[in-house]
Write a structure and sequence with these properties.
Blueprint: H1 13-19, H2 69-81, E1 87-94, E2 97-105, E3 120-122, H3 127-140, H4 164-167, H5 170-174, H6 186-190, H7 195-201, H8 224-233, H9 237-249, E4 255-256, H10 257-262, E5 271-274, E6 277-280, H11 291-294, E7 296-299, H12 300-313, H13 320-326, E8 331-332, H14 341-346, E9 347-352, E10 357-361, E11 364-373, E12 376-383, E13 388-394, H15 404-413
Antiparallel strand pairs: 1-2, 1-13, 3-7, 4-7, 5-6, 8-9, 9-10, 10-11, 11-12, 12-13
InterPro entries: AmpC-like, Beta-lactam-related, Beta-lactam/transpept-like
Protein name: Beta-lactamase family protein
Keywords: Signal
């Protein structure tokens, strides 16, 4: 069966742009015409002009009495106590406050150093939401617009379809609507190819649709947003991210790049299976070449602050209208409805927003992203109608900790307990399924896919 998410959508560029009338994506207020946005302010002037979305974070139903963070802490501790994973860290925030934030297990299976609140993990594709936030802040500053053509700031960019690069917008980059086959050139990136050389090869990469018309997850092409931001600000991407996001939010352990994690006072080593147990490695450098897609490092303390901001409680840094834009899906991703048991049983729709995935989870909106590179896994999810956020990071390729997420979500919305942690229906329990393409992609569609034999280490 073909992957519907990879077919060109049956709509024209004009029809897609019209659909964005529901999306306050432009640095222009008021009305939008069918091709461009018009106006002066960044968002519609009143909530009544915006589509119905999440309720105010200050007036939402709360998880019931059965919602007990201590139970989830016990489950996390059990995962490391019997050696099923070397270590993990988990944060839960509710109503803008941290209700659980702990480390479990060890940074290195060969040692005894415990994981604590400030142990740094590699975030892999959880980095994409940081790129979207930084971009949105620059849109708010009037530096460019969501519908600005990428070639305005990256004039040398070429795609294989004549003129396609002129259609590619900033929002298209961050929602994986470039038009390429999925994960284009990730295999080359995994082989430590130079990023700039891979971007040049986009001129010859197959395209399945015009920009803006279909979804296919990217790491190399996504990271063109770094070129746009650098051309706009004149500053290094990592420094701008630290200045505009990490420091204002109090993410004191956060960094970017291989040097960033290795210079951290305490960081979790990546682990793979070998010799009947877990073997610690050094982090692979390849995907640090694409910082916007996969280059952020952070502790669970940092992720608590990130969740507080993403759930609307730091409007001084991430204002509510910007969050509404980032969290609103712009294209369907139906392949995510299959895979692990919790996906099959709980999800009824899936889409990609601006650096985030958005699911209908048993009738509740969930804003989500997963990440995976060699030896690291992570997940972030928010349940807006319960004002709840969850982050789980772990330093191994086990899928078991992913079951903590649906366990927490089920409890928050009042569903009966299910042993999701023991779900063995698919080895890659957290991740969406898909089929490999013509060999150019290193991982199956679904972005957060657990690594395939073809591409150990590719971030998802």
């Amino acid at each position: 069966m073909k992957d519907d998410a990879n077919r060109p959508q049956k709509r024209t560029r004009l029809a897609w742009t019209l659909s964005l009338l529901l999306l306050p994506l432009a640095a222009g207020s008021g009305a939008q015409d069918s091709l461009r946005w018009r106006g002066a302010s960044a968002y519609p002037p009143s909530p009544s002009q915006q589509p119905a979305s999440r309720p105010s974070v200050h007036a939402v139903p709360q998880p019931g009495a059965a919602f007990d963070p201590a139970e989830f802490e016990t489950l996390a501790q059990q995962l490391v106590a019997d050696g099923r994973v070397p270590g993990l860290a988990m944060a839960i925030v509710q109503n803008g406050k941290v209700v659980s934030e702990r480390g479990y297990g060890v940074t290195d299976a060969k040692g005894t150093q415990p994981i604590d609140n400030h142990t740094v993990f590699r975030l892999a594709s959880l980095s994409k939401a940081f790129a979207s936030a930084l971009t949105g802040l620059m849109v708010d500053e009037g530096k460019f617009r969501w519908d600005t053509p990428v070639v305005d700031y990256v004039p040398w960019l070429r795609l294989s379809r004549p003129g396609a690069e002129r259609e590619l917008t900033v929002a298209d980059l961050l929602s994986h609507r470039v038009g390429l086959t999925r994960n284009a050139f990730d295999r080359d990136l995994e082989a430590n190819a130079d990023y700039s050389g891979l971007v040049s090869k986009l001129a010859y990469a197959p395209m399945t649709c015009n920009p803006g018309e279909c979804y296919a997850y990217q790491n190399v092409a996504f990271s063109l947003i770094g070129n746009v931001l650098a051309a706009t600000s004149g500053e290094d991407y990592g420094r701008e991210l630290a200045r505009m996001v990490f420091k204002p939010l109090g993410m004191k352990d956060a960094s970017t790049g291989l040097d960033g994690i290795e210079s951290s006072p305490r960081w979790a080593r990546p682990h793979v299976r070998g010799g009947g147990g877990w073997v610690a490695l050094m982090p692979k450098p390849a995907y640090y070449h694409v910082l916007p897609a996969a280059g952020v490092n952070a502790s669970i303390s940092d992720m608590s602050q990130w969740l507080i901001a993403q759930t609307g409680h730091r409007p001084d840094v991430l204002p509510a209208p910007l969050l509404a834009t980032l969290h609103r899906p712009v294209i369907s991703t139906p392949t995510e409805l299959r895979g692990s048991e919790w996906r099959r049983e709980r999800l009824t729709s899936a889409g990609y927003a601006i650096g985030w995935r958005v699911y209908d989870y048993a009738g509740h909106e969930v804003v989500f992203h997963g990440g995976a590179v060699q030896g690291y896994r992570g997940v972030v999810a928010m349940l807006p109608d319960r004002d709840l956020g969850v982050a789980i990071l772990w330093n191994s390729e086990s899928a078991l900790p992913s079951g903590l997420l649906p366990t927490i979500l089920d409890s928050a919305i009042g569903l009966p307990y299910h042993a999701w942690i023991e779900d063995k229906s698919q080895p890659a329990g957290l991740y969406a399924s898909g089929q490999p393409n013509n060999g150019e992609a290193a991982v199956p569609d679904g972005s957060d896919q657990a690594q395939s034999p073809a591409a150990a280490g590719a971030p998802r």
